[in-house]
Design goal:
The protein is of the alpha/beta class. Helix content is 40%, strand content 17%. It has 2 domains: 76 residues, Winged helix-like DNA-binding domain superfamily/Winged helix DNA-binding domain (Arc Repressor Mutant, subunit A); 112 residues, NAD(P)-binding Rossmann-like Domain (Rossmann fold, 3-Layer(aba) Sandwich), CATH 3.40.50.720. Strand 3, helix 5 and strand 4 form a beta-alpha-beta unit. Helix 2 crosses helix 3. It is globular. The structure holds adenosine-5'-triphosphate. Adenosine-5'-triphosphate (ATP) binds next to helix 5, strand 4 and helix 7.
Length: 215
């Protein structure tokens, strides 16, 4: 992460991977430029927001021309550290954890689950989706230079494992357990509770139905 990025508002930074994925696809298709309208339709962000976001990237679209795909791509790659693979560890090789081990994160971004940990002796020593599964007791021995961890253990285990991860030098945790985990200020936790998300979608469908499209 370089200092330039400190100037980008967090809301904009959150949209970066979304922009990156689309621009990368355009680049693969051999497109040289893209308009904010095209971008807006594809990523579902209004074009005023896109123009504001892109001005932070130093990308000033030209009227009738749009944005230069090559420029945007190189900016995103640099900003998102796409030239360097980020190593990720996964803790808890249950149903969800196993699915993640089979999922190819490299397809869309440069992150790779390099190792997994579990407490179940039947899983330890196996390889799932090409990723070795180690015993969770050995966490500290393997977690070197690993900045990011995915947490898919039962919620009762989440806090204890988190403390060990922090102690081992992990600075970002993607928490898929329903547990709210407590971490020191310098650790970033992103929480994805799938059941809550699903319930919230059902609630919104019921109480805030979207207008039907006309015609
Ligand atoms: P999921 O919640 O992913 O659907 P599941 O229902 O198959 O998984 P859980 O009981 O949630 O199983 O456990 C998830 C995984 O976490 C299991 O593989 C289990 O062996 C593992 N696990 C349990 N306790 C620990 C621990 N302390 N450290 C590491 N892994 C653990």
């Amino acid at each position: 992460m370089n200092n330039e990025q400190n100037k980008i508002p967090q809301a904009t930074a959150k949209r970066l991977p979304l922009y990156y994925r689309f621009i990368n696809n355009l680049h693969h298709q051999g497109k040289l430029r893209v308009s904010s309208k095209e971008l807006s339709d594809a990523v579902k962000v209004d074009s005023a927001t896109i123009r504001r976001d892109f001005s932070y990237f130093g990308a000033l679209g030209k009227k009738g021309y749009g944005y230069n795909v090559e420029y945007l791509l190189s900016f995103f790659r640099k900003t998102l550290d796409q030239d360097e693979v980020t190593k990720v560890a996964l803790i808890g090789v249950g149903n969800l954890g196993t699915a993640f081990l089979h999922y190819n994160f490299m397809k869309n971004n440069n992150t790779k689950i390099e190792m997994a940990f579990d407490a179940d002796p039947n899983k330890v020593g196996s390889e799932i989706g090409g990723v070795p599964v180690y015993h969770v007791d050995d966490l500290e021995d393997y977690l070197q230079n690993t900045a990011v961890a995915i947490l898919t253990v039962p919620s009762t285990e989440a806090q204890g494992i988190t403390e060990r991860l922090v102690e081992a030098g992990v600075s970002g945790i993607l928490n898929f357990t329903p547990a709210r985990i407590t971490v020191p200020d310098h650790i970033r936790v992103h929480h994805i509770d799938l059941s809550v998300e699903l319930q919230s979608l059902v609630y919104f469908l019921k109480h805030y139905p979207l207008e039907e499209e006309e015609g």
